[in-house]
Amino acid sequence: AANQNKIFVSSTMRTASPTSSLLGRRRLLAATAGLAASSPSLVKAQPRFRGVALVIGNSRYSWEAPLPNVRRDAPDIARRFEVLGLKTELIQDAGKEAMAAAVERFKAAAAGQDLAAFYFAGHGATWENDTYLVPVDSDLGNPETIRNLLPIKAISAAMQGAAHRILLFDNCRNNPSGGWRQRAATYSAFVNAAELTAAAVHGDNALLVFSTAPGRVALDGPPGQNSPFAAVLLKNLAGPAIDVASLPTRLRRDLLIATAGQQVLWHEST
Q1: 222 prior amide bond cis, ω within 30
Q2: Rounded CA gap, 33 and 188, in Å?
Q3: What is the per-residue pLDDT across 141-187, written as a single tens digit (0 to 9) for each?
Q4: By three-state DSSP, how is residue 40 classified?
Q5: CA nearest 139: which of 23, 17, 260, 12?
Q6: Residue 266 near residue 213, CB atoms below 8 Å
Q7: I need a labelling partner for 177 at 20 to 30 A (CA). Which of 52, 72, 115, 247 fits?
Q8: From CA 201, how far away is CA 153, in angstroms rounded?
Q9: At a CB cut-off of 8 Å and minimum separation 6, what does 55 contact?
């Protein structure tokens, strides 16, 4: 894809300002899969996590205004994963083929690992009861584009080789259509929220986090800053220890405060 950069991490990315007409920027699907009941929930900084991570930040879309803040959020999250001890690959401005190739590499790297973590910042969409991540070379104005999007179920399936999994999604979860279609999509998403989220999680010991509620958009935040979700995630992944079991609750509280109640985090934990 054009404007694609692949680097092995040590930086952070931000979401863009809320300028898109049809899609809000992110949805924190922090699908973090990795809470095993048999494993301690308090993870100390030393020894650190043992595992791998993949971070994808899509900012420069060919069909929509750029998301400049994403270019800060993704590197920031990738750097934080590295500090926690995860061997992290950071991909920026990736098209369909580049995203698919990165997921295949991630699948191979996650096999046999104690922990696999995934983070996405960019545009997302809900279509016919599934949530998708949008490559930079996809045009959501065309209904046929759904075939070129990356379903979150594919990400979860690729991480099955790891003992524990964490998935974090900072993208919108709305339908790019307007009018009654959008209202219908929102209603359907809320009605089926539990089933949809559960269906996206494969197996035990997984944590899936969405930065926003089904059918809703995610806020980008002021230009030059991290998105509200990325900011609270970075805050809660800092410190000498991370209580993974209580992480979603703390993220939800901090996000509600940061957005004055406009953005509600959703999660599923197995």
Answers
A1: no
A2: 25
A3: 776 777 778 999 999 999 999 999 999 999 876 655 543 344 444 44
A4: coil
A5: 23
A6: yes
A7: 72
A8: 7
A9: 9, 13, 74, 75, 77, 78, 81, 88, 89, 90, 91, 118, 119, 120
Taken in order 174, 180, 185, 190, is the CA torsion positive or negative?
positive
Quickly tell me which residue has 């650190």 as its tokens. 48
- Rounded CA gap, 92 and 124, in Å? 15
Residue 189: which region, alpha, beta or left (left: phi > 0; alpha: psi -120 to 50)? alpha
CA distance 99 to 136: 10
Among 130, 173, 164, which Cα is nearest to 26's? Answer: 173
Q: Reduced to 3 states, what is the DSSP secondary structure of residue 265?
A: coil
Token pair listed for 45: 């900084």
Q: In what order do the strands lie in the sheet with 124-127?
A: 124-127, 130-133, 150-151
Q: What is the CA radius of gyration of the chain?
A: 16
* pLDDT at residue 110 greater than cutoff 50: yes
The pLDDT tens digits of the residues spanning 215-232 come to 777 887 788 889 999 999
Q: Where are the beta strands (DSSP E) in the chain?
A: 5-8, 26-32, 42-44, 51-57, 86-92, 115-121, 124-127, 130-133, 150-151, 164-171, 206-210, 241-243, 266-269
